[in-house]
Amino acid sequence: MADRRTYRTFGLLDIGTSKTVAAVIVAEHGPSLSAPSLRLAGLGLQRSRGVKAGVLTDLDEAESVVRAVLAQAERAAGVSVGNYTVSVAAGRLASAHCTARIDVETGRVTHDDLQRLMAAGESYAERDGRTLLHLNRLGYELDGVGGVRDPIGFSARRLSAGLHAVTADEAPLRNLLVLIDRCYAECDGLVASPYASALAVTTEEERQFGVTCIDFGAGTTTIALFADGLFAGVEAIPVGGQHLTYDIARALQTPLAEAERIKTLYGTLLNAQSDEHESISYPVAGEEDEGSFETTKARLTAIIRPRVQQLLGLVRERLALNAAGRYAGDKVVLTGGASQLLGLSEFVANEFGRPVRLGRPSDLAGLNASLAGPQLATLSGLAVLAARGSNELSTPYARKVLKQGYLGRVGTWLKRAF
Predict the structure, then answer these.
(1) CB-based contacts of 362: which residues, under 8 Å, 6+ apart?
(2) Residue 399: what pLDDT?
(3) Are 235 and 351 found together in one domain?
(4) What is the mean pLDDT of residues 276-301?
(5) Which of 194, 259, 299, 412 could cross-link with 248 by S-S, CB 3.0 to 4.6 Å?
(6) 340 shares a domain with 224
(7) What are the pLDDT digits (tens) for 358-401?
(8) Which CATH number goes with the domain that contains 317?
(9) Per-residue pLDDT for 413 more than 60?
(10) 401-407 long-range contacts, CB within 8 A, separation 24+
(11) pLDDT tens by residue, 335-362
């Protein structure tokens, strides 16, 4: 019997502080494939404008960039997609953990019971003006007995579940939808970017044993925690690699573009005796004589190190406050564009006293080798989630609101406001 294979094309959009990326992916499904085979058909990449720390600050500038990357990706793929799965890092992403309980009316657990359980969790998570982005189950109890993975068909009078919700402020999400509408595109759903990044760079075994994935982006640093193979926690800190660039520019009085170049080429957290004598030439802002000023690698490290220590201190605080932190094991995986700073893995390992590795997403066919690195981890994770079409995470905000037309969404927002 022939191996019948089907193909599905979908779009991805990741709007970051430093770059905006769109991709058109072709997923191949077949009986002999344990997971969809993914191929990059088209890629659009431009420097972001109108975005700060993942939040839209200028719709017109952001729109021109998003329109350009969507057109670039679809032109390269030779198809018009229209619908995109979009990553979210804005809105002060945070975790909420709760236990939902219901009575099993029929005495035997059904899918309707699970839906009622999830509805109870949604109501709890959306308190205090927060918007529910993801909701997933961590485990069940039947009449007080835990350890149940799938309760369907079990006999019980009382069903309870530990739930993990990812919530965000609604205003940044609304503005993200407005931006996508203005680009004449549709949103298939929103995915928390730390979850997408973690899926791309951690292994199934690591997630099963417990792992913490830290994504060092340009404007934000996000954290995803896994325990027993389940997504159990998320955090977002509005500090990233761009702040290192600002520190270098301020200390050396050099333009931002030059500070970024210096950080990329010479930035390191490792100490070497030769760094005291290795000089770096750079221009000073406002001076006509370019290249006449010098510093050393040792001084550059002294500029970078305090900011990294401050950021890791914030990460440590967030992990201590997150309920999933105590279950996520010791392993730490780093990813994101700023994670490529030389010596960062060793520095984090020393600061945390935990095993650390640099995570790279698995190869995506059709992606240029120069781009197949931590800087595109979020996009790779979006591809995995969109291709899988899994229901392991419910996305109530996306399903209830995003699929409406623009006018319908405006009506929804007005009802919520008044």
Answers:
(1) 200, 380
(2) 46
(3) yes
(4) 83
(5) 259
(6) yes
(7) 999 876 666 665 567 899 999 999 988 888 765 544 454 444 54
(8) 3.30.420.40
(9) no
(10) 401/177, 402/177, 402/187, 402/188, 402/189, 402/190, 406/181
(11) 999 999 999 999 999 999 999 999 998 7
With vertex at residue 184, the alpha carbon angle to CA 181 and CA 187, rounded to the nearest 5 degrees, is 55
* Residue closest to 52 by CA, chosen among 293, 296, 314, 239: 239
Residue-range definition of the domain harbouring residue 210: 203-358
The two three-digit tokens of residue 342, written as one number: 């030389």
Out of 20-34, 128-142, 404-418, pick the least confident.
Answer: 404-418
In this structure, what is the dihedral angle of CA atoms 41, 44, 45, 51, given to the nearest 10 degrees? -130
Instruction: Find how far residue 172's CA is from the centre of its chain.
Output: 15
SS (HEC) of the chain = CCCCCEEEEEEEEEECCCEEEEEEEEEEECCCCCCCEEEEEEEEEEECCCEECCEECCHHHHHHHHHHHHHHHHHHHCCCCCEEEEEECCCCCEEEEEEEEEECCCCECCHHHHHHHHHHHHHHHCHHHEEEEEEEEEEEEECCEEEECCCCCCECCEEEEEEEEEEEEHHHHHHHHHHHHHCCCEEEEEEEHHHHHHHHHCCHHHHHHCEEEEEECCCCEEEEEEECCEEEEEEEECCCHHHHHHHHHHHHCCCHHHHHHHHHHHCECCCCHHHHCCEEEECCCCCCCCCCEEEEHHHHHHHHHHHHHHHHHHHHHHHHHCCCCCCCCCEEEEECHHHHCECHHHHHHHHHCCCEEECCCCCCECCCCCCCCHHHHHHHHHHHHHHHCCCCCECHHHHHHHCCCHHHHHHHHHHHHC
160 and 207, same domain (yes or no): no
- Rounded to two decimals, what is the model's pTM? 0.88
Specify whether 140 is located in the same domain as 215. no
